[in-house]
# Entry
Amino acid sequence: MDKRQFKKRGVDYPIIDGVRTLPGKYYHDQDIYQEEVDKIFYKFWIYACRAEELAAVGDYKLIQVADESLILVRDKSNDIRALFNVCSHRGTQLCAEPAGNFKSKSIQCPYHAWTYGLDGKLIAAPQMQEGNGFLKSECGLPQASVQIWEGFVFINLDKNPVAFSVQMEALMGKFKDWKMDELRIAHHIRYELNCNWKLILQNYQECYHCPGVHPLLTELTPVQSAQHDASSGAVIGGYMDLTKERGSMTMDGSAAAPPVCNVSGADLQRIYYYSVFPSMLLTPHPDFVLFHHIIPMGPGKIINDCYWLFRPEVISDPKGQAGIKSAVDFWDLTNKQDWMVCEQMQIGTMSRRFTRGYYSGREDILHRLDVEVLKALGHDQPG
Ligand code: FES
Ligand SMILES: [Fe+2]
# Structure
């Protein structure tokens, strides 16, 4: 890292009195992780997939939420369902293939052939007569709630979920000009990382690290341009300004494609960074949308699926490929720079000598993320 990148640039931000980082155990402790699974990942609306991944009736994708597996499937009414992947007979996992199409328009258990409709209703239980407490109508598959916003499918595993519009208040009406439901996945990269899920959200929401970690990104969007424009409960966001007229986040800083749909005015020069707590990072650019899907696999492990969304006509045009590649290369490079410091922080915060650090004035928003976690866990103070 080039230490000269951190030369004083004219502004120092006051640190906020009394604001300290979380203790290291919040990134390592198995009990705290289990509490987060129960009180955050099983309670909040979380990102599951894009509606386009379930285009036809019978299309499905398995989604792992900590130790629960769900089948996201498009049913005969064209609705998307989130069915728990567990047979009501004796609890066998119904489906093991990660994605595909239920050609029979039903889901059959591999054990004793109980068969369910795509809507989760039990339609056949071979050689079992109703009676003595057994009623087919009461043995359908349990389901999580589903809500679609701009082509993004969210699910909630709680039996009495909070209203989607309440949790996502800061997103409602935001980014309409991008018409994200019309965008399509142009590229996807899966990263498997050795760090806690919260470190990725923290890293995403501050650019204090940018000059040293991301020299190219800092050229394209100066650190001083970073602003926060949303901090409402579970959604925290802001933007940075592009230096280059009609630029974007690509290897040479040029736009990867024409502006998306109705994006205009100041938005043509901005990159937005929105953490959709706890499972998605949403980054609308003037010409495409990048997003990350964060899947915790334990206190120190995550899967991070990164997607690039473009207009369908850009994806299908051979001339559009160079722009897409430049956007993918830029963010793959930047992602790997971030993953390296996040994984090093995961290791360092295990030290007995790490207690609680001081956030800089540029990291005030991270404290709000910490408060959101502590509030969800019901911890008044970090223990
Ligand atoms: S466990 Fe599924 S049919 Fe028996
Ligand atoms: Fe970064």
About this structure: The pocket of fe (ii) ion (ligand 2) is lined by residues 203, 209, 213-214, 338 (CB under 6 Å). The two ends are 34 Å apart (CA to CA). The longest strand covers residues 184-193.
